[in-house]
Automatic annotation (TrEMBL):
Molecular function as annotated in GO: G protein-coupled peptide receptor activity
Pfam families recorded: 7TM_GPCR_Srw
Membrane topology category: Multi-pass membrane protein
Organism: Biomphalaria pfeifferi
This protein's name: Neuropeptides capa receptor
Segments crossing the lipid bilayer: 22-48, 60-81, 101-122, 143-163, 194-219, 250-274, 286-310
Main subcellular localisation: membrane
Keywords: G-protein coupled receptor, Membrane, Neuropeptide, Receptor, Transducer, Transmembrane, Transmembrane helix
Example of a GO cellular component annotation carried by this entry: plasma membrane
Entry annotated with the keyword Lyase: no
Record lineage: Eukaryota, Metazoa, Spiralia, Lophotrochozoa, Mollusca
Amino acid sequence: MLDINLTRRVILSDEQRTIVEVVVYVFLCGGVSVFGIVSNIINIIIFFRQGLKTTMNISFFGLAISDLCSLLNLLCFTIFLNPLVERSNLPIVSREFQYLVAGWPYVCFTRITSLITAFMTAERCLCITCPLKVKNIITPKRAAVVICSTYVIIFFFLLPEYATSYIDWKFYPPRNKTLLRLVFTSNRKSMEGLVFILNACLGALSYLLVVVFTAVLIYKLKRNSKWRKENNKDFSDQTSSRDNKAVTMVLLIAAFLIVCSAPSIVLSLVSFFIQEFSVLGVHSNIFFAVWSIAFFFGAINSSVNIFLYYKMSSKFRRSFKALFSKVRRRADSSAQRTKHRWTFVGPRKNTSKNYGADISSDNLSKLINSYRCDSFVLTDFPTNGNETSVKDDFQNSVSAEDIRLGLQF
């Protein structure tokens, strides 16, 4: 026992691990997650408004949902690791609680993101290699089935993890209390390695597919671009620019996926080959510290897509501008185009109409005569800016200076 504790202190102490986690999780991951959640909500709204009638929109919509869910879990994860939460009186051991409640769901959705990206890259590859057949091969309905199946398959692969671990009441010596903690079944050791290797294989497979499809796509695009220049020089510049944008977008997708998710793949393999590199193993401090960095890279990968869409897709850019211009117009209309409701009381049935806030005394006299009213009441009421015409009558003039908001005259 002495040797084990000494090894843990030499590699990374508890205090050092806490500092690393607070900086990476609470500040870096927390900030990126909040931004990513907002950006993916915007992505979902835009793709939904554009319509889920094309395979690419369906794929982008599914990708935005998986990114949003992964970032929500990561944000929950960072909250549990906040020292203020850890030292609170909540009846949980937050460091163990988050592992099953937020940690694995986050990994699950990042794997879904990887496979959807692989599917999107494969579709783009088919669009170049067999453009006349791709619409029959990958239809919107089939694309939706593939996306939904990806979610189901990934959830299925996590069953061994949740079959051998659960949250239950257990005595926690540091606080001398019975708290909600992570509990493992008797066959946990035999299943732990399987879970990690399945996770690593799924990630590695998706990365390999992205790399292969990207390489084929780049090769085909360059070949087609060269052919166009030789046979149609008048449009060579236009087609080259279009091809370059497609190549750049695919390369960025592949680069972000491979670079940002590679750390989690490596750590999963290390966990499989080194049994003590686990949550409760000898090297648990190192385990938590390096996984925090892997989670940060994953958060970046799930948050930057909005920049890629905005830069590379003119359709997305138009929808983005239209969405925010509409929101801005509504805000301006509410702030600047305020109307007032005037209730005219008289021999006729009481009538309420909307008129401008800056109504003149002349126009007010017109209104009074038009409705033959004995009195009127003015109250704030924002409307859409439509004016109501009145009769041209100037009798019984009332001064605008006598008007008081909310009072009856």
